[in-house]
User: Fold this.
Amino acid sequence: MKRTILSIILIAFAATVSAQVVDQHGHVVDTTSIYGERADSLDAAVFTSNREGNYISRFKDVRTEVISAAGLCKMACCNLAESFENSASVTVGYSDAVTGARQIRLLGLSGVYTQMLDETRPVMRGLSAPFGLSYVPGQWLESIQIAKGSSSVINGVECMTGQINMEHRKPTDEKPLFLNAAVMSDTKMDFNIASSLQMGYKWSTVILGHVSGNIKSHDMNSDGFLDEPNMLQFNLSNRWLYQADNGVQVRFGVRAIQDNRKGGQIKSIVNPWETDILNRSLNGYLKVGVPLNEDNSQNIALIADYSYQDMDSFFGATKYIAGQHSAFTNLLYQNVINDSHRFTLGLNGTFDRYDEDFSRIVAAGTAAKQGITDLANAGVFGEYTFHAGEKFTAIAGLRGDWFYGQGFKVSPRATIKYMPVEEIVIRANGGRGLRYSTPLVDNIGVFSTGKLFTGSYNDHILEDAWTFGGNITYYMPFGASSNTYISFDYFRTQFAQQMVVDYEQQLNTIDFYALDGRKSFTDNYQIDFSVDPVERFNITATFRYTNAKIQLKGSEAPVEKPMTSRFKGVLNLQYATHLNKWIFDFTASLNGSCRVYDFMADDKDADGNLLYKNGRTPMYPLLYAQVTRRFKGWDVYIGAENLTNFRQKNVIQGAVRDENGYVNAYQPSFDASCVWGPLMGIKAHVGFRFTLWKKA
Assistant:
């Protein structure tokens, strides 16, 4: 049956769509009006790679942090999850200690509240979210843009804390061949290939390939569980661009992924608790952009995307086998009236069909679900943009969405950018975001426990949040470049409705329930500073403070959200010699404490010392270093991460040993989801990058 479904999906690729057009000068115009600084030409790509690795864009209307191609080369960056180590805006951690699933936090909230975009197409939704960060190779990317807060209404209504947009290597890049290979000291290997080919003016394509895996996994903390699962991933993508003489552009592509990972207790243990996860997905898209007049001041675009995600997973005595069909369509009309006024009108919608077979038989009790669930919404939107030269920009957007089973909802959003003088940029934005919750998939770490599930774990409530905030950036007149700045921003997210996953209502129980009038909010403060004190030497420092609170069922007042770090500070130093022959990168981060769950408060180490004084984790540093030597067409690099060798202790909760000294994981107190720090110690890596440029 699955083979039949996958065959149908391959045929259905022709029905998928997305869009961009060119102006009268032949430059690409982003018809979504959010990420306008595209890099489809060789000149633009080179310009991006010569900038700082991480910087706040001076020209974006929304507060946007850019991780450039240079930033993606600062570390091993094997995948998207490892691309945020230089950023305090985004925090990346593990969902649990056994599956290798990674999760991000933006504005102090789980990554499910951040809209992930692949060149403006929503991705990593539902079943693809837990492991999606691992399925985007860092060397496939040209840049990453992190926009905070509620931005445009154009790409859908699911944006709550922000958007992370990924720009891939382009078909028009004049690089017929790019190769990258890296190997880690933990035996993980990573190989990437990219080939951009131009077949005349009209047709161009890029082929992207990736394979990664590890030969051997480790148990560095001797708790009987593999620190990372044994894994093997294959990833292939093919993107096309057609440019007609009349300005019409057609972009389409396909992608296939297979990822297998096995973890849990080591085989020598009697009756081991194991995980076995197989993810397979197919995706197709097609973008069509049509200019309606010669100067491209009016254009229409159709964006559509279809994907199928298949997840076969086993966690001890828990089975979760599911498939997800997802479709996204977006029809846009844009009219640039003049330099001061433009507007965009459109229709879009999403559809998700989940086919789930879930059963859980643990000592604490059972849980199950089997059947098909449809989630859908369709919306109409409009967005108006006013420019008063370069000094002032105002964007007002409004959406109206019909949600299947939930009725009609209105979502307003607004953005303001003001430059009173050339050196100061002030931004503010706010608005409403809505999304269907998928409680089990959104919180996949709950499967790596022996706890009883109670409440609404099979329900899909409509989560509702408002986010408001702003940013002020001051560009200072010193340093070896014109991009010395200090920036401060504040954002607050307030939930009107939320799915709460409560570990503290009752011992050895995870309770799922709706917020239903209780309070849940997050305040996020951040300060950024960047300077080039001398030529080719960049210093970037960032500090973020988060105040996240939630009112749990039965409590009279909000309490600090557990397992949410209060602060993070990052210092990055990069120095390059003449002609960039040698590049030296060093990153240090200080990660703040978080409140642990009540059942962790009395944990002790092997010497009997209390691990969590006052119920909080310790602060801990992380250090990264890398040296790159560049030759003609070649880069060779060597580096290491977690140089302090810091690791979380007692990462497996309730690990009671039997009379033979083996950990018995089949008990209600077992919990491998309480991860707040690194699972592995020092890891070294070595790799190379080879680029073959197209001859003139």
About this structure: The first strand starts at residue 21 and ends at 22. The chain has one domain: 2-692.
